[in-house]
Structures are given as C-alpha cells and as structure tokens.
Amino acid sequence: MVSAGGVAMRLVADVTRCVGAGQCVLTDAAMFDQDDADGTVVLRVDTVPAAAQAAAAEAVALCPGQALALVPEERAP
Amino acid sequence: MGDPVTDVTTQSTPVFPLPRTCPFAPPAEYDRLRATEPVARVPLPNGDWAWAVSRHEDVRSVLTDSRFSSDRTNPLFPRLVKGERVSTDAAPSLINMDPPEHGPARRAVVGEFTVKRMQAMRPRIQQIVDGCLDDLLAAPRPADLVRHVSLPVPSLVICELLGVSYADHDFFQSRTSLMIARATPHEERMQAFGELNDFLGTLVTAKEAAPGDDLLGRQILRQRETGEVDHAGLVSLAFLLLVAGHETTANMISLGTVLLLENPGQLDRLRRDPERTLPAVEELLRYCTIADLATSRVAVADVEVGGVLIRAGEGVLALGNAANRDPEVFAEPHEFDIDRGARHHVAFGYGIHQCLGQNLARLELQVVFDTLFRRFPGLRLAVPMAELPFKDDAFVYGLHEVPVTW
C-alpha cells in the first residue's frame, strides 16, 4: 500500500509514552487496540492501508502522550 | 521578544479565574487575550499572578511539556481560590504526579478504562440510565433533571465500577449528592465528605479480605503481585475516581441537555440518527469545556511558550475553554454544531494527565442523551434558560438545578 505521494507509511508506537487514553482506538479500532492489563496501545497493523492513512494521521495528532508516529516504510534491504 | 518579567502585566486584566457572563460562552476576555496577548500575565485572587495561555497550540504545548509540573504541593503552584492552602501531606494522587512516577502509576489503573472495557459496561450503564429515567417519569412535573438524572447516573456508575454492593447504593448516592449540592450547609457537606471517606476505607478493607472481580479487587491483586500493598493509596484512588467522575459527568449531562433543548433543529437531527450522538458528545464537550481551570501547571525550568519566556517557578493557566474556541483551529468556534466532527478539543485536557475516565464519560453521555430524548420526546425546560442557576463561580462549570417538564 502506498500513500498519494507514493511512499508506504508505517505506524510506530512508543508504549513508554502511552497514557492509555484510547483516542487511537476511538479513531480506528481496526488499526489500534489497548492492552487489557495496562491500557497501552497495541498496533494491529504495521503498514498503514492506503484507505486508512487519514485516520492514522488523525490518531497521531490526537494522541495525548505523543506516543504515535507515522514513518515512511523502509525498503527491504 | 523583550523581557517578559518586567512590565507585561496588563493593568486592565481582571483577576482570574474569570466568570462566564453568557451561560454557554467562555469569559469574553478570552477572545481578546487569544487575539492580542496569547501568553498573558494575569492577576490571581491571592495577589500572585500567573501566565494565562489561550491559543490551542500553546495550550497543547504546555500540557505536553514535562518542564511544566502538575505538583499541587509545590508552593509556587498557581492558586485560584483566595486563601487556598498548600496541602503537602495529602496522599500522592495521579493528578499531582509528574514523570517518572506518573507513568507507572497511571498504567496501573488505566487498563480499567480502555475503550473495550467501557463498551463492555454499556449494558449496565443502559440499565442505570433506564432506572433513573423511570424515576424521572414517575416524578411530579416540573421535575429537577439534576436530582433525578444528572447526579444519580454517574454516582451509580461509580458504584458499579468500584464494586459497591447494591444495598449501599442509596447511602453512596445520597452522600455524593449532599457533597456536591449547593444548598448543603458547610457542616453537613463536611459530614458527608467524612462519611464517604470512611465508607470507601471500609470498602477497600472488605475488598482486601475478599478481592472481587471489580476495579478495587483487581488493584488489590495487582498490588499483591508487585508486593506494594497500599491501603491508603487505594482509598485515595477510589476517592479520586468519585470526585473526578461524578460532578463532571453530572454537569455535562445537565449542560448538554439544556444546550440540545435550546437547539431544537440539531436535537431533531440527533434524535433521528443515533450515529450522530458520539460526534455530538464531542461537540458538547468542546463547547462547554467545564474543567477549564483544572489544567494549571508550574514551570520547573525556563520554557518559551508562544514567544514568551516563562521562568522556572512561574505558574501557568492553560485555558482549555480559550483553546477550544480558537478560530485558527475551529471554524466559527462560537457556533454549536453537532456535526462539526472535531475531536482535537482539550475538554479532557491534553498530555499525560488527559482524563483517565474520558471513555466512561463519553459512554455515559451517549447513553443518557440517546435514551432521554427518545423516551421524553416532549422534554422541555420548565423555566426560561436565562433563569437557570448556572454555576458561575464553581471550579467545575455546570448547573445547580434544571427544572424540566414533558
């Protein structure tokens, strides 16, 4: 899957920054889940489907702990 | 940029916190500050001053910067009530903690409030709301929405969450209402406060003897696993959940109902399409921003915000109600529009302290509005809106009473 710019994007989560607010799950429950024990983010996808790029970007922007990032997919070596 | 410390206090700026002069509008001064002085030195009731931050971007930047501390035991923390004393002996609470202590403490509890776990509570919340609406229906008209719905719904939901037995619901609910109601005399309020604290202490002791499948039971088992048994900490947590989850939700139920009744076109759209309720709840949260004053901080290092240097030891008021009406971020910010679809408001705060119970609050509001307006299609205010007793002077904005009829 690629973005409009032709670069596939990947989600990265830093669970040490996550405060379990659940904004990402509210944004897109197909991409994000929360750990049952400590509420921290669990990524359900690695590469972001093209149709979900706007939702992924919204989740990144809403995250109160700034625990999420969208990064360009690295090419296989 | 100049030296911000010397001479930027605007002589004309009134003492904070400012009252709301229109029931559903932020203090008028907020628009002026945001436009002309987005990081402004403002006087406080005790003669101190603090920085009032009013742009959405700056509010988010303050609330995500670890150089701004939430430690209310810091003597330099901005005090918003005249004569408010610094309590240095209170049990540590999540709202007062900074990193690195805050993260593990929050993660020990926040698993109880995940989106999934809240969804699992939905049938029980629906039952609670149905029961309260049965009471409202049976009450003589006009009836007070606050007494029959706004206060009991969150109180009973907290009972459910904490595992308070059904037999104790009446006691719990009557004391929480007394603690909050404006008409309660001071001594009676203090007595209700003490009785609730004792009750929660006894509840925690009982759960320690037989930990059940509820929030406190799970916290106890978790503490035993880590070997950090902390009775006082659990009582303090139970009280925090009660204080933070009761009046806030109650006020949003009251304000939201009034706001929707005052906007019949939007209420009609909401009634016809339950899919609209969740976005409508987000807009109600933005538009009311009842906990505008909860997001104060004290700088523990020099930090530049919006081009102004804030020095270590200076207080900051991150004004959520100004941020949520920032025209740079919300088009026509003073319009109430249930179809706005804007979720980046800061009504629940922002940063690591963003409301722990936000998804519970969303769910309660969603179930209340869906059910109330369906079961009471003719619901209306029994007095003109201008006569409603708004909590102009309260720390958490809301309504003391909402007489309704149908």
Automatic annotation (TrEMBL), chain A:
Transmembrane segments: none
MF (Gene Ontology): 3 iron, 4 sulfur cluster binding; metal ion binding
The entry's keywords: 3Fe-4S, Electron transport, Iron, Iron-sulfur, Metal-binding, Transport
Top-rank lineage group of the source organism: Bacteria
Pfam families: Fer4_15
Residues of the signal peptide: none
InterPro entries assigned: Fe-S_cluster_ET (IPR051269)
Cofactor: [3Fe-4S] cluster
Protein name: Ferredoxin
Gene: fer
